[in-house]
Amino acid sequence: MLRRHFLKLLSLTAASVSLGSLALPTPVQAAETIKVGILHSLSGTMAISETALKETALMTIEEINSQGGVLGKKLEPVIVDPASNWPLFAEKARQLLSKDKVDVVFGCWTSVSRKSVLPVFKELNGLLFYPVQYEGEELEKNVFYTGAAPNQQAIPAVEYLMSEDGGSATRFVLLGTDYVYPRTTNKILRAFLTSKGIGEADIMEEYTPFGHGDYQTIIAKIKKFASEGKKTAVISTINGDSNVPFYKELGNAGLKATDVPVVAFSVGEEELRGVDTKPLVGHLASWNYFMSLKNPVNDQFTKMYKDWAVKNKLPAADKVVTNDPMEATYIGLHLWKQAVEKAKSTEVDKVIPAMAGQSLKAPSGFEIKMDEKNHHLHKPVFIGEVKGDGQFNVVWKTPGPVRAAPWSPYIPGNEKKSDSPSQ
Predict the structure, then answer these.
(1) 16 phi and psi, to 5 degrees?
(2) Is residue 421 part of a domain?
(3) Per the structure, how many domains does the chain have?
(4) Is residue 194 domain-resident?
(5) Are residues 170 and 269 in the same domain?
(6) Residues 157 and 76 both lie in one domain
């Protein structure tokens, strides 16, 4: 009798284990998608520039999913809005990595936002793709930089302005928003200009806060500086929505490109959408991509974004434009996809080495490659003149892609720094 009770008890226990196991979710269900974080300001002073990067990321994710996804899984975007609030960038980055468990993040615009999130990505071993030109002086294991280093944008632009084709400028106004990118870039440019024989008296340096809206006084100072006998050019590292009042005041003051050319490093097609560009014809921008470039890959890229805008009912969908950081976002997502497929894993420590040497034919018209060592892209450089329709006419370009130099040779001590990312 004891034996019969014991066997019955075993039978009931086995049944309950079987039923319990049926109720548990299988591990496969939890990993049906690969989560991709999108960390861009959709409100605040930087929304004018960053919103389009969120849309580009979503468009590219949809394109990749339509082609079968990555490792047979669909990409699932996870969008957060750090609202142009630099400390909030760090909080949102931690949320994406710790709570949402994303495998990669595409995001940030300003260097102060990137500097804010770096400790989080290092602590949690996350992976960030940063799509905007920046000041260099940084090389991190957990970041891939798909925008330009100074030798891929700022230095070529100033060399052009000093050339006969660029107007033979010998006086320079370094005008920027007051944060790390403009100040460090201008430190590099001041050292470069000095090395070319430009005296301190021929360099004027001015900064304004984020969101600054009144440029009358500064434009008046620029006009006075330019009236002192030498050919003057303005190097603008103004960021965000302050570009709209700056360019409006430039037009109001009648400061034409033939008199004092302005070359911008943070103004592209998207920022000019809110400005009457007719008074700005001839002013310049230096980038690694312009929407006006004519080649089959760019034709496909611009059409894809226009179709995306209409389908998703974006504001003024019939007038959307593409620009350099949008192209850098698109490139970054595709190179990450290729690296994941090479590594056969989304694990950060496997994807990082797989990124070395990844390449693709980009909308710029060139074969773009991720450097084997320094986490930066080899990119072409273009200088464009503003046209009346808000597009750019390319007036100068490099023969091919330029290898990034994240440590500028114009800052003492950089010659001793490694060209491989810090661990």
Answers:
(1) -65, -35
(2) no
(3) 2
(4) yes
(5) yes
(6) no
Task: Tell me: pLDDT of 17 over 70.
Answer: no
Handedness of CA 350, 356, 362, 364 (dihedral sign): positive
> Average pLDDT of 297-319?
97
User: Do 153 and 189 touch, CB atoms closer than 8 A?
Assistant: no
Beta 382-386 vs 284-287: how paired, if at all?
A: antiparallel
CATH number assigned to the domain comprising residue 76: 3.40.50.2300
Statement: residue 14 has pLDDT above 50:
no
The pTM of this model reads: 0.90
Whether 90 and 212 map to the same domain: the answer is no
The residue written with tokens 């894993």 in the block is: 345
Residue 278, both tokens: 């007719």
Coil, helix or strand for 308? helix
Query: Which residue matches tokens 């806060």?
Result: 209
Give the mean model confidence (pLDDT) for residues 259-279: 90
Query: What DSSP string runs through 201-223?
Result: GGEEEEEE-TT----HHHHHHHH
Give the whole-angstrom CA distance, residue 300 versus residue 364: 12
The domain boundary residue, chosen from 287, 313, 328: 287
Q: Classify strands 367-370 and 377-378 as parallel, antiparallel or unpaired.
A: antiparallel
Tokens of 293: 């470039």
Range of the structural domain that residue 223 is part of: 152-287
Residue 390, classified by CB atoms within 10 Å of its CB into exposed (0-12), middle (13-18) or buried (19+), is: buried
Interatomic CA distance for residues 96 and 81, integer angstroms: 11
Q: Considering the domain boundaries, does residue 57 fall inside one?
A: yes
Same domain, 182 and 278: yes
Take residue 217 and report the two structure tokens written for it: 């006084």
Same structural domain for residues 243 and 127? Answer: no
In angstroms, the CA 118 to CA 418 distance is: 19
In a domain, 17, yes or no: no
Closest CA to 390 of 253, 249, 288, 247: 247
| Mean of pLDDT over the chain | 92
The burial class, CB within 10 Å (0-12 / 13-18 / 19+), for 76 is middle
Q: Please tell me the distance from the alpha carbon of residue 399 to that of residue 145, in angstroms, as a whole number.
A: 22
Does one domain contain both 165 and 140? no
